[in-house]
Amino acid sequence: MRVVQDYISQYAPRWAGPGSEGVRGLSGSCPGCSPLELRVQRTRCRCWDDRPLPPAPGAQPFPNPTQPCPVPAADPSVTMNPAVFLSLPDLRCSLLLLVTWVFTPVTTEITSLDTENIDDILNNADVALVNFYADWCRFSQMLHPIFEEASNVIKEEYPNENQVVFARVDCDQHSDIAQRYRISKYPTLKLFRNGMMMKREYRGQRSVKALADYIRQQKSDPVQELHDLTEITTLDRSKRNIIGYFEQKDSENYRVFERVANILHDDCAFLSAFGAVSKPERYSGDNIIYKPPGHSAPDMVYLGSMTNFDGTYNWIQDKCVPLVREITFENGEELTEEGLPFLILFHMKEDTESLEIFQNEVARQLISEKGTINFLHADCDKFRHPLLHIQKTPADCPVIAIDSFRHMYVFGDFRDVLIPGKLKQFVFDLHSGKLHREFHHGPDPTDTAPGQQVQDVASSPPESSFQKLAPSEYRYTLLRDRDEL
User: Fold this and answer.
1) Taking a C-beta distance cutoff of 8 angstroms, is the pair 23, 5 a contact?
2) CB-CB neighbours of 429 under 10 Å
3) Contacts of 452 (CB under 8 A, 6+ apart)
4) 273 DSSP β-pair partners
C-alpha cells in the first residue's frame, strides 16, 4: 500500500496542477492488458469524449496511461510458482486499477430521458428535477458535474428511487421533448411532480448546496396544520390563504388537497385542520375556503367535488394565480420569458384603490385578451427606472403603460380607465401596430377630422425597460428561434 501512496503522491498531485481539488479527470486505456478507463473524482474538469486530457500547466503528464502493456509470452517449460511477479509495466497497470478504486467516489447515475421512458419515469416520481441541456452549450457543460453531485447528496437523504429523481434530456437528440416543454434556453431546469411540470422552473444559484436546498424545500410539507381555529386570526392577510377543514387526515379529500398544495404552494399559503379542531367549520362536511388578501374581501367556498383533482386544482389555481399579477425583480425573468407584452399599472404600494380599479377594469374589458398580454402591477418606488424611461416619477403614479419588449407606450390619464372600452382599445392599438405608427408618424389619418392637415411627426417611443429582466446571455445559451429545436 505504501508503494501505491508513493506512486499517487509522486504523479497524481503533480499531474493535477496547483489549485485542483484532488486529481483532475483522467482517462486512458491499456490495450495490452484489458480495457481500462481511469476516472478519478472530477470537480473542476470533465472529459466529454473519453480522450486523455492534457496536463495542467506546469504539471507532468501521467506516465504512459494509454500505452500498451506488454504481456510476456507463455513458456511451457517454466513452472508457475504460487507467487506471481509482475513486470514494471504490469505493476503500473495494476496500480492504475487500484487508483481507480481508491479515488472513484460512489455516484448516482443521472436518469437519461427519451420518448420511450419519460412519461413512465416522471409519472412515478414524487419530485423530479430535469436538466434540459445540449452538449455543445458551455453552460450545460458547467452544470453537469454540479447536477450530478447534488443528485448524490439528495439520494443519501431520499434513498427511495421514486422519492426524488434527477434526470436529464439531451435536447439535440430529443428535440420533440424539448418542443413539448417549450425549452428556449440551455440549460433549463424544470421541476415535475407526479408527471406534472411546475410552472416555475429553477432559476436559483447553480451550486450543489443551492440545488440540494431547493429539493429539500420541495419535499417539505406544503400544508400547515392548525391546532386551534384561533390561529386563523393571526394569518398574514397580505397573502392568499387556502384553508381545508377535514374530518380525518387519512382521507381521499385531504390527499387531493395536499396534491394541489404541492403544486401551488408558491402562489398560496395552504393550511388545514382535522377532527375536533375543524368540526365547527364542517357543518356540511369537509370543505375548502379561500381567504383573499385584505380584511374586507369575503371568503369563498369551494362547492365542487373534493375528490375530483382537476376541479379542485382549477378552482384553487384561479384563486391563487390572479388575473393581474405583481411583477417583482424576483419573478421578472419568469414573466418576461412567457413572451407576452406587459400591460402594467405603476402604483404606490399603499394605493390599493387604484389597483382595485385596474383589476376590475381588466376583468371587465380584457378577459378575452388573457392569452395575448400579461396584466401586471408594479411598485412605483421599486420600479423608478422604467418610469424614468417614460418620463414619469413616483409622484405621477398611478400610471398605466404597455411594454412590448421593443418600446414602452403610456396610457392617457389613469381616470380614463373607467371609460368603457378605453383600456381595451389601448391593447388593441398595440396588437394592430397603431401605437408604434403613431409614435413615429403622428395620429393615424382615420383619427383626424375631415380637412384637418396630417403632419408627419418623427418620434421614437422609449425603448423597452423590462426586456432587461429577460434571461441573461451570461447564464444561458439562448435559442433565438425555437424552430432550432
Assistant:
1) no
2) 17
3) none
4) 245
Q: Are 30 and 96 in contact (CB under 8 A)?
A: yes
For 29, phi and psi rounded to 5 degrees? -145, 160
Architecture of domain 325-443+458-469: 3-Layer(aba) Sandwich (3.40)
The set of cell numbers assigned to 378 is: 408594479
Confidence label for 89 from pLDDT (cuts 50, 70 and 90): low
Tell me the C-alpha to C-alpha distance, in Å, between residue 136 and each of 140, 144, 205: 8, 12, 22
Q: Which CATH superfamily is domain 223-320 in?
A: Glutaredoxin (3.40.30.10)
**Residue 56 identity:** A
Q: How far apart (Å, rounded) are the C-alpha atoms in residues 125 and 166?
A: 10
Q: What is the DSSP letter of 265?
A: T
- pTM for this one? 0.65
Phi, psi dihedral angles at 283 (to 5 degrees): -65, -25
Amino acid at 282: R
Q: Is the pLDDT of residue 5 over 60?
A: no
Domain map (residue ranges) of the chain: 111-219, 223-320, 325-443+458-469
Q: How far separated are the first and last CA of the chain, in Å rounded?
A: 52
Q: State which H helix or E strand residue 377 sits in.
A: strand 374-379
Q: Is the model's pLDDT at 207 over the cut of 70?
A: yes
Query: What architecture (CATH level 2) is domain 111-219?
Result: 3-Layer(aba) Sandwich (3.40)
- With residue 409 as reference, give the H or E element that holds it: strand 408-410
